[in-house]
Amino acid sequence: MDEKKRIAIIGCGGMGGGHAIAIGSGTGNAVYNADSSRERGMKIFDTSANTDISTRLELAGIYDINPDRMRWASEKGFALYDSYESMLQDQSVDIILIATPNHLHKDMAIAAMKAGKHVLCEKPVMMNSRELEEVIEVSRETGKLFYPRQNRRWDRDYRIVKKIYEEKLVGNVFRIESRVQGSRGIPGDWRKEREFGGGMMLDWGVHLLDRLLFMIPDKVETVNCRLSYVLKEEVDDGFTMFLTFAGGLSALVEVGTCNFISLPLWYVGGDRGSAVIDNWKCEGKMVQLSSWEDKDTLPIMAGAGLTKTMAPRDQKSLITLPLPDVVYDDNELYSNVVDAVNGVAEPCVTAEQALRVMRLMEAAIRSSEEGKTVRVDG
């Protein structure tokens, strides 16, 4: 039941190369830069809880249409296929990992499942919800797993926020802000092109929304979104989105590529405290309220006038704490794919979850185009 599986990778650019190193080394932690002269391992946190994925997955081989990428893979000692067709014909391959530009995902996923392979697909899994519905139907017809690689559910910053939310460490959460901001514009490759599925909504929005929907059980009621085109490209270079949930919680989701001073990754507001995570190193803090009693508040001078409402709290009523610790296996996704293929576990990430995210992104794009708040069914 714990049978090891063989996986082949189609597409060996930045993401595909990273997968090859991660699976080939068994660590799951290597990050590959598309410039073949530069590679770097990224281990900011303790990884002692991580699974050695070499016990679960074996890299069968790689194919890419770019000769330079094939040469890089060969130099790394990875086996090569001479075409996608030959990869699909390899009876020893159990899983196809799709790491090509977005517009190729649908046809490749369908071909793989019809060839008897399970599919692990990079995000966004499809260009739109209609394509994903087609793929889900083929998955049902063939009995093959289609697994969206929403790997940022295993980001440490998100795991901390999820713990704060679920354990009510700042009370009942009524507001969440989730953002990523950079200052380098859109990457200088196909992500600038509409026909290939470029733009920041599909590149980063899919991650931020997936994490919120996975964490918050309530349905989304409304979305108001504005896509940005600061760089005058044909696809969005960022967006600002406001979501309301049925339970009363609201969320601000932002992605920017022209932010030379970045705001915090996360801000969490609860009725008994607040928390902030400044960056991917998870620097930040949590403040808990010890008492609402504050009878002796005096007004302060705020700008040109006085305010009592916004006067800072006496530190006696607040407890400042470090962010909570979290321990988890950030290689769980790879292991879960194998368990799901072997039939011993349910997928951590499902195609239906990805479909919900895709439909929410489409509602956000419609909100931006129409310039109004859009109601969401779920």
The secondary structure category is alpha/beta
What's the architecture of the largest domain in CATH terms? 2-Layer Sandwich
- Kindly report the spatial arrangement of strands forming the biggest sheet: 17-14-13-12-8-11-10-9-18
CATH T-level fold name of the largest domain: Dihydrodipicolinate Reductase, domain 2
The averaged pLDDT comes out at 91
Brief summary:
With 378 residues, the chain is of the alpha/beta class. The protein has nine helices and 18 strands.
What does this protein look like?
By secondary structure, the chain is of the alpha/beta class. It is built from 9 helices and 18 strands. β2 and β3 form a beta hairpin. α4 runs parallel beside α5, α5 packs antiparallel against α9 and α7 crosses α9. It starts with a strand and ends with a strand. About 5% of the residues have low confidence.
Task: Describe how the helices and strands are arranged.
Elements: E1 5-10, H1 14-25, E2 30-32, E3 39-41, E4 57-63, H2 67-75, H3 84-89, E5 95-98, H4 105-114, E6 118-121, H5 129-142, E7 146-148, H6 156-166, E8 173-181, H7 200-215, E9 220-228, E10 238-245, E11 250-256, E12 266-270, E13 273-277, E14 284-289, E15 300-302, E16 305-307, E17 318-321, H8 332-342, H9 351-370, E18 374-375
